[in-house]
Design goal:
Length: about 230
């Protein structure tokens, strides 16, 4: 279980402080598919970055089971992120001079995971292993970035607009893969998106405005990816 208590994160904006997170509290059970929605600038990415240990808050707590990550030093945070988390971003961030297989192995090596065959097959990347990122479509590149993330066998997968650069059909393929792999590997997904349709496949939807959570909705019966449109 992940618990977030009274998170505050501010930035200096001229002479004023801008509160990107203004006392945010929430809890997420293991295995949930959480979608964070909200207008631009509402604090979604900041929340994701603080929860995942990429950024430190001004105050507040982020507690994984009984492990508080706020206040850890850089070395401890790096170990925490390596062991527990993985990331997928809209911009893929593949290494351009490494082929598909080597990009995925980078994730696997971080956890000493030798077998990436299952992940390559699971994401439909068989046959593309020797290609360089520029030889792939956007959807294929995003599948490689998911494969790299999952090769780490994370407990928590953080996604920031993972389908933001993709068309509807490709986005749905990506979401279908993610859901299938989540069922199989049992990790928790926390996803920031502008796409309200994606909320329908989530088990929990968090809505943010101006650095605050304004609504949390639990959904015991999320829809299948094939049932949604946008
Ligand atoms: N490094 C930073 N320095 C200064 N201000 C920042 C920084 N990062 C974020 N902010 C500000 O904090 C607020 C929340 O930003 P954040 O990126 O979390 O919003 P968001 O909801 O993810 O937006 P978007 O949907 O546009 O990505 C915004 O007003 C933003 O300008």
């Amino acid at each position: 279980m992940l618990r977030v208590e009274n998170l505050v994160k501010s930035y200096q904006n001229g002479r004023e402080l801008l509160y990107a997170l203004d006392s945010v509290s929430l809890s997420i059970d293991d295995g949930e598919f959480v979608v964070i929605l909200g207008p631009s600038g509402s604090g979604k990415s900041t929340l994701l970055n603080v929860i995942s240990g990429l950024e430190q808050p001004d105050s507040g707590s982020v507690i994984y089971d009984d492990y508080e990550i706020c206040g850890l030093n850089q070395k401890e945070l790096t170990l925490f992120r390596r062991d527990k988390t993985a990331f997928i971003f809209q911009a893929y961030y593949l290494l351009p001079f490494l082929n598909v297989e080597s990009n995925i192995k980078m994730g696997a090596d971080l956890k000493g995971n030798k077998n990436i065959t299952e992940i390559i097959d699971g994401l439909g990347l068989r046959g593309l292993e020797k290609r360089l990122p520029y030889e792939l479509s956007g959807g294929q590149q995003q599948r490689v970035s998911i494969a790299r993330a999952l090769a780490k066998k994370p407990d928590f997968l953080f996604c920031d607009e993972p389908t933001g650069a993709l068309d509807e059909e490709t986005s749905k393929q990506i979401l279908t893969y993610l859901k299938q792999l989540q069922k199989q590997l049992k990790f928790t997904i926390i996803m920031v998106t502008h796409n309200v349709s994606i909320a329908q496949i989530a088990t929990k939807v968090i809505k943010m405005t101006s650095g605050r959570i304004i609504e949390v909705t639990s959904n015991a019966d999320p829809r299948d990816v094939s049932e949604i449109t946008w």
